């Protein structure tokens, strides 16, 4: 840091030393040198006088009306009520955590809701069937029939035609067809007996009614 | 640091140690000891007495709570004024859009008890300081008013010593060019160029 550039080297040194000389923070040798320089340099002497006046002005008490006793009383009152402030700060911190948690729960609830609506729209009809549910596709007198694997389609069709049977369901997972008789002259029991004695039919059982 | 500074700092450290264990009498002694210095320092930032008192109390509130963590890396006065500086800047940000002057009537009443000579000196200083930035005013106050070294000021303002030197230099140049004119003297244009 350089003082005004057109000052001489001694004046630059004097410029640096002045603030500290005013506070008696320079060595005796430095102080003596400054005193000597000031007697020879009118510009620095004028500057030093101004610096002295500046320091004097700055050490005047503040011109703003202040009351340290009142200030101290307020400070002590503030210290006496730290719990209220701490509670307030803790409440602010807790409030922030609570708000974050509530927001997280709301986001989760919203996500679950959206997911539920999506799954419901995709699977409006459940794929499962409970034992207590009534069989929706089993008309009265229906019979489960399992044809032999070796039975040809033409033989199966011929059997259905001869016995006046109509396939209303199947084949299911085990290869059983659900058939009903369209011949009202035959009882389901007679139809069942005939099927059981027919070659190529492995199984014929009436569809059980719901309990 | 001279002998008086060393003695004063030793007393301040002892008071801080007592404050650390909850001694309110020590707090009161330190508060009264620093009130004038801090008020004068803060008056370079704001003219509002309520803001000054608020900052002084914020400063001592922190000092009371942190007294036990003072490690003695600097003088106690440097530590306390550093806290006041930061609290002052914070208060300025909070009250930045409010008037910086107290009620004129209050000041006029106070000035009525001010000797003419002091009042003239204050006016001369106020006009000069008005030409400076807030940081330049504070550096001038810290060096000339409170007698801190450049190293102390750097700690207080949390900036490099070079920055403090620059602020002090520019403040002095501005005052050099302004104050003589305010005192009715011709301005030394020859020396006005840094």
Automatic annotation (TrEMBL), chain A:
Entries under Gene3D superfamilies matching the protein: Anti-sigma factor, zinc-finger domain
Record-linked InterPro entries: Anti_sigma_zinc_sf
Domain of life assignment: Bacteria
Name of the protein in question: Zf-HC2 domain-containing protein
Organism for this UniProt entry: Dyella solisilvae
UniProtKB/TrEMBL annotation, chain B:
GO biological process: DNA-templated transcription initiation
Cited Pfam families: Sigma70_r2, Sigma70_r4_2
All residue ranges annotated as the RNA polymerase sigma factor 70 region 4 type domain in the record: 124-175
Domain RNA polymerase sigma-70 region: 30-96
Keyword terms, alphabetized: Sigma factor, Transcription, Transcription regulation
Domain of life assignment: Bacteria
InterPro entries linked: RNA_pol_sigma-70-like, RNA_pol_sigma-70_dom, RNA_pol_sigma70_r2, RNA_pol_sigma70_r4_t2, RNA_pol_sigma_r2, RNA_pol_sigma_r3/r4-like, WH-like_DNA-bd_sf
Residues passing through the membrane, by range: none
An MF annotation (GO) of this entry: sigma factor activity
Record family assignment: Belongs to the sigma-70 factor family. ECF subfamily.
PANTHER family: BLR3042 PROTEIN, RNA POLYMERASE ECF-TYPE SIGMA FACTO
Name of the protein in its database record: RNA polymerase subunit sigma-70
Organism name: Dyella solisilvae
